[in-house]
Design goal:
Helix content is about 30%, strand content about 25%. With about 425 residues, the protein is α/β, with parallel strands linked by helices.
Length: about 425
């Protein structure tokens, strides 16, 4: 799909899409529970739908209603010996330890960029928990056979917090008097979200400084009703669009959320955007934007909207945390450099630091998403203040996380032309 976004003034009100991070975790918790859980305000992105399919293959019965999903489960009892996590990094890293709770040999597949992501972590860690595990030279497919037996274990948290999310959720179903110790954990807010959600489903973990996670008395997940909150990762693009091209109110955003990408508010403040926060809404208005410094190590998914923001700031913005970008849907540091370069924005990559030279004017151009949803959205936001239309190839990449994105941007006044 090719989408052309023309320069436009943004104004209006829009409701944030559901958080795929919270949705996928809720689906996993419902699978691990006994009984029927109700997931309200469900996400329908590709990653969320893949999570529902995995849960179904691992034993859950799923019924879709008009405004919610009913997930009935009696724990992990696989119907099949293979699951496919689609293109979801969180999905494969979270569901692999959960699937290992079964003693059935299971093959775990994925597609797209997921086939190139490293899976060595599982080969290093799962055998320590009595799980047989093999990969294809560190890549998919994964072959596992449990059952997983929780033990005191120390893991490296520097590559991704998503591996830890999977272990925490799996341990929550069977662990007793054991501790997971983590070195150099990144994206701590996402682990806070995991622990928050586990607690809502009845499993509590004693956490100290995001370094140790203690499971005392054996617990069990309890089916419950859960409402998925708005997604700060997707809303970040709408908030930046308002900051650079007009004004907007984005609703259904919990300003007390544990989602790490809520940090977009900090970046917008540093850049000088006009802002008014409510409890579940944020108002953003265009102002004279200045370059800023921001550490995105704990929120690497913010790099694309931050670059779109920085491109509109009068000077050089410094964003640290580039090392977190290599194993995303694309190598995002390089991809942002290439695609924004086509629009006349110079980006330098110096080790862990990204320098975005803004204020030089964004040019109309033809760009490519590299099958990366966040690259497509960042280019669309940049187009709002370009000197001409920006044509985005492979724009359907947005379906991975935010299929409503172009509709929402159009609702705010964006000029969108779709060529399927």
């Amino acid at each position: 799909m090719q989408v052309t976004v023309s320069p436009a003034v943004v104004t209006g009100t829009v409701t944030a899409n559901p958080s795929k991070s919270a949705m996928q975790r809720a689906v996993a918790a419902a699978l691990l529970s006994n009984g029927t859980s109700i997931i309200r305000n469900p996400g329908l992105s590709n990653d969320c739908l893949a999570a529902l399919e995995v849960a179904e293959n691992l034993g859950a019965k799923i019924k879709r209603e008009f405004d919610h999903f009913e997930i009935t489960s009696n724990g992990v009892k696989p119907f099949y010996d293979e699951i496919n996590c689609g293109e979801s990094g969180l999905g494969i890293r979270m569901f692999t330890p959960i699937a290992a709770l079964s003693d059935l040999p299971i093959t775990i597949e994925g597609h797209g960029s997921l086939t190139t992501r490293p899976m060595n972590f599982f080969e290093e860690v799962l055998p320590q928990l009595d799980v047989k595990c093999s990969t294809n030279n560190g890549k998919l497919p994964l072959h596992i056979q449990g059952p997983l037996k929780p033990k005191n274990i120390t893991i490296d948290g520097s590559l991704s917090c998503q591996f830890l999310t999977g272990l925490l959720m799996a341990y929550g179903a069977v662990a007793e008097d054991v501790t997971i110790t983590v070195d150099d954990l990144k994206s701590k807010p996402y682990i806070a979200l995991t622990l928050q959600l586990m607690a809502q489903f009845g499993v509590k973990v004693e956490e100290k400084n995001f370094e140790t996670f203690y499971f005392g008395k054996k617990q069990a997940y309890k089916a419950c009703e859960y409402t998925v909150e708005g997604d700060w990762s997707g809303a970040a693009f709408l908030l930046v669009a308002a900051a650079v091209a007009g004004k907007a109110e984005v609703q259904h955003l919990n300003t007390a959320s544990a989602q790490s990408d809520k940090a977009i508010l900090e970046a917008l403040k540093k850049a000088g955007a006009g802002m008014l926060e409510g409890v579940f809404t944020v108002n953003i208005q265009k102002a004279d934007l200045k370059p800023f410094e921001f550490d995105a190590t704990d929120c690497p998914d913010l790099f694309p909207p931050l670059v779109a923001l920085a491109a509109n700031c009068n000077g050089t913005t410094k964003i640290s945390g580039v090392s977190r970008l290599a194993h995303k849907e694309s190598d995002r540091g390089i991809t942002l450099q290439q695609e924004f370069g086509k629009m006349g924005i110079k980006i330098e990559l110096n080790g862990d630091l990204m320098l975005v030279h803004g204020g030089t004017g964004i040019k109309g151009a033809q760009v490519h998403s590299h099958n990366d949803h966040r690259i497509a959205m960042a280019c669309a936001v940049a187009a709002l203040t370009a000197d001409g239309p920006v044509i985005i190839d492979n724009a359907e990449a947005i379906n991975k996380s935010y299929p409503e994105f172009f509709d929402h941007l159009e609702l705010l006044g964006g000029k969108i032309a779709v060529n399927v």
